[in-house]
Amino acid sequence: MQQAEPILRMVDVRKTFSGFSAVAGVTFEVKRGSIHALIGPNGAGKTTLFNLATKFLKPSSGQIIFKGRDITALLPSAVARLGMVRSFQISAVFQTMTARENVRVALQTTRDDCFSFWRPQGVLNVLNDRADALLADVGLSDLRERKVTELAYGQRRALELATTLALDPELLLLDEPTAGMGREDVGRIAAMIRRVAQNRTVLMVEHNLSVVSDLSDRITVLARGEVLAEGSYAEVASDPAVKTAYMGTAHG
After folding, report:
1. What is the CATH number of the domain that holds 5?
2. Domain limits at 189?
């Protein structure tokens, strides 16, 4: 893992809003094949950094490199086609469709004949096997014929991830994947992330530090828009600056 090449590099990236510096010269890299966590107190700049990486925001300065290519000036759609996809924002689920139907529609967006969505339903049946495999990856095999309105909150989040995986991303960005979940759902989602990360790279923002500790190969800690510390969980947890930044916010 330590010798893996970086799939994503952000070099001295800055973002200001009306004079306020949300991201202040961040430099870090994500190794291919790793699970990399981005953590920090509220307002640290984590979500802004995600938006910059996926090009939903344009950096004020700095460079973003994905798979060795400078993507700083690219549009979000172009970045997604290159293989970087942000889950739980890009994906969308249709409430009146079944879990399988949702994944089939997502799979169809990768086909040249994507407008076959407007053709008879049987056109999509060839996608059933792949859809069912993705649903199995996220633990929804037994619920593939259930409508989204019949799924519990944690199951809907799992379905959203399945629709994102349908785009076959090389780098998957997860923005607080366990937010709002009970302990049982948190455990299921964490196990699911570990499964889907076996053949792709994951960069995640996560407030649940037990999930971060359990899953992450490397952690970058942000505070006030800057990198405060980086390393393994043990290394960042013992860093005095990190302890100070998290004072009173570690359970938030």
Report:
1. 3.40.50.300
2. 1-90+171-252
Q: In what order do the strands lie in the sheet with 226-231?
A: 84-87, 171-175, 201-205, 35-39, 218-223, 226-231
Where residue 107 falls (left for φ over 0; alpha for ψ -120 to 50; beta otherwise) is: alpha
**Do 115 and 235 fall within a single domain?**
no
Last residue of a domain, one of 142, 166, 190: 166
**In whole angstroms, what is the distance from residue 146 CA to residue 151 CA?**
7
> Does 53 share its domain with 103?
no
**Tens-level pLDDT at each residue, the chain (252 residues):** 446 789 999 999 999 998 899 999 999 999 999 999 999 988 899 999 999 999 999 999 999 999 999 999 999 989 988 999 987 544 468 888 999 999 988 888 766 555 455 555 555 667 888 999 999 988 899 999 999 999 988 888 889 889 888 888 999 999 888 888 888 888 888 988 998 888 899 999 998 999 999 999 999 999 999 999 999 999 999 998 888 877 544 443
What Cα–Cα distance (Å) separates residue 124 from each residue in 101, 116, 154, 167, 240? 9, 8, 26, 16, 55
144, 166, 188 - which closes a domain: 166
- Return the ∠ at Cα 202 (arms to 135 and 217), rounded to 5°: 125
| Total structural domains within the chain | 2
Question: Residue 52 is inside which H or E element, if any?
Answer: helix 46-53
User: Which DSSP helix (H) or strand (E) runs through 205?
Assistant: strand 201-205
Instruction: Count helices and strands (H / E) in the chain.
Output: 9, 10
**Of 110, 94, 109, 164, residue with least CA distance to 135:** 164
Q: What are phi and psi of 138, to 5 degrees?
A: -105, 15
